[in-house]
Amino acid sequence: MSAFARDVAQEFGFRFGREARVSRAPGRVNVIGEHTDYNDGFVMPAALEFATLVAAAPREDRRLRVYSMTMDETRELDLAAPEGPTHEWADYVFGVAVMLEKSGLRLKGADLVVWTDIPLGAGLSSSAALEVASAHALLAASGLPFEPLAAAKIGQKAENAYVGMRCGIMDQYASACGVQDHAILIDCRSLESRPVPIPPDLKLVIANSNVKHQHAGGEYNARREACEEGVRLLAPFLGPIKALRDVAPNDLERYKAKLPDLVYRRCRHIVTENARVLEAERALNAGDPVACGRAMNASHDSMRDDFEITCKEIDILAGLAQATKGVFGSRMTGGGFGGCTVSLVEAGAVEAVTQTLIEGYRIATGLDADVFVCSPSEGAGFAAA
Ligand code: GLA
């Protein structure tokens, strides 16, 4: 068992006086494809080494009792009479329990201990990892099988219907189904995915801006509404379309005048981003990091100018990386309004790039960035023995 998993199992024994099994679900970085998931489009995330661990063992009654080592807090829920969300970390655990039961499963009560080393609120999917790790742990404690895609859907439902964030499926999917040393190309309509190798001479470097703008949740839902408005306004001209996935870039140009400018620009981000994801996949498979980096840079411009989800600090980080030798491309990753950038970097240049980002960011903003290399990990399972 990893040292972290051993600590969590030990904490469980100390608190609850018996043995537990430890489940693990990773965070994710999205290489490219932002806000395309809820438009039935394409995304290309990779699961991180940073993960959430949940130790669990069943109880005799139907209560869930969960202690967070990260928050040093305990919360409880009665599965027989579950209460609504309380707008804090435990919602992700209890939301998953409620959705598992709604799907027709009957869970046993359980004691749980949770811990994470995923930076919180940084756009690296700490919430999705807590959802997927909780699903794995609750199912295991009830003697029920874990099916990764089903668990991803339960996590998304918990977030949509319990927490109230209208997220797509990308984060939970990456956390549940990640592939070691690979990104995964997910078709968010068919929900099929294929691994895309990240070769050892290329590194994904993540830079955390350590800023998160408060309005992010509301802005996220507003972007989703603008996309839905675009589909509604384009449908009379393009026939039975269900999502922006069904709109080709030239169709959007043809009917541009039918859309308010803001809706047009939101839609333009999505339809061009879908094309960029496929181009990035092609480029990585063809051993062409230059073309992949070009698509990443264009994605950042589109998020900044058309979708308007970046912010000053993030634009500075992406700009610094893009101008640095050894960097093929750089962009914001995740929902937006702060968080992290991801850069595709030549392995030999990682140290110099890290220095440049930390120093340049400090000079430009007075803030400290945390910079680390992502080694794509496996999706959810029991913590390695
Ligand atoms: C958040 C959501 C995802 C996705 C991204 C943006 O991480 O949870 O579903 O929409 O934002 O790509």
Largest sheet: 8 strands, mixed
CATH T-level fold name of the domain at 3-197 and 378-382: Ribosomal Protein S5, domain 2
Mean pLDDT rating: 97
How many β-strands, per DSSP? Answer: 12
Low-confidence stretches: none
Helix content: 40-55%
Shape, principal axes of CA atoms:
globular
Explain what this protein looks like in three dimensions.
The protein has 385 residues and is an alpha+beta fold. It has a domain at 3-197 and 378-382: Ribosomal Protein S5, domain 2, CATH 3.30.230.10. The protein is built from 11 helices and 12 strands. A hairpin with a 4-residue loop joins strand 9 (327-333) and strand 10. The chain is globular. The protein starts with a helix and ends with a strand. The site of alpha-D-galactopyranose (GLA) has 11 residues, from helix 5. Residues 30, 34-35, 37-38, 167-168, 170-171, 334-335 line the site of alpha-D-galactopyranose (GLA).
